[in-house]
Known about the structure:
about 400 residues; mainly beta; four-stranded antiparallel beta sheet; 32 strands; globular
Amino acid sequence: MRKLLGIALVAALVVLPGCGTMRDWFRSDKSKATDPAPLQKIEGAARVQRLWSVSLGEGEGRLGLRQRPGIDGGSVYAVTDKGRLRAIDIETGKRRWEVELEPLSSGRGWRVWRNKVREGGLMSSVGVGEGLVVVAGRSGQVYAVSAEDGSPRWQYQASAEVLAAPLVLPRLVVLRSQDGRVVGLDRNDGSRRWSFESPIPTLSSRGASTPAFAAGLVLVGNDDGTVVALRADDGAPIWEAAVAEPEGRSELERLVDIDGDLALGADAVYVSSVRGITAAIALASGQVVWTRDNGGSNRLDLTADGVLLADRDGVLWSLDRASGSALWKQDALLRRQPTGPVLAGSLAVVGDLEGYLHWFDPFTGVLRARERVGRARVLATPLATPSGTVIAVTDEGRLAAFRIAE
């Protein structure tokens, strides 16, 4: 009896959360070396207030995509796993409106789950601006609705699926589809004004950089590791800059996609490739000013002097905007797959694979606060308001808002 009790006790200790030492007895050193870095206590951590939390369903986790909500004024706009677009009050989390745009097919019943086949649903991140919300479905159908009440404005059929958030400008909506095509649509009626196409490598990662706008140019990061500048008026190419060159024998080794959103400065655009290269490109000429051998698939953000990024190993960096030299590095999130950073008030924040948000000083890299959204990973870079409210979503569809308590 004592022997049986002893065996049961050891088995319980092995599986209990927090009993990492017992579990580690049965794991190789190689396995331990790839674990996410354990979280250390933050001395003098700021208190984080959870403002609200809502469920959007499990769509992002099923798709394996970084579906980033959109934010404009006092609302956040997010897609649900039922093919619906929802507007949520930033301060209270209350639903302002919700519309069904591209519902999931229900004809197969449980066979949809068993065969891992899903038809319909919304695929892209959300683009918002100028009173318009734009999102794309699995079929490549693009939907534009009123930001005020969700009423329909127009639809457009893209040439392929659209994963990146549409760019909404005063007179133009820009789409970047997965076949390398970029189109400029009339903001008022969705009619096509111009189109541009870039070559797609044999193998590319499943993601896309959201187009950006600066100095009359639409800037697009491509799957072949280049950034192209198109004239917003007619889509004419003005310059093209190579950020990363394919290297290696296999197609997988030759991946150079630019999947993270670009960061725009006054005279330069900053970009990072999945190959692990970050670059600064002159806006006027397309000349590559500097490159640095650290980077990844996430978006960048800017301080007055630095470029904030998370590299492929999970190390946070600030690079000098003028030279690319390192201002600081923070490895507390090693192998935790942090999202891209975003400035939130006086701090910056990233999410990670265990559902945590980490606030840090953007000028020193020192961690200042931590809070958990949920127990699922945060794939998309959090959103932030000018006042410092942070909104993040897990891949199980938990959307929540946080603020550093005064």
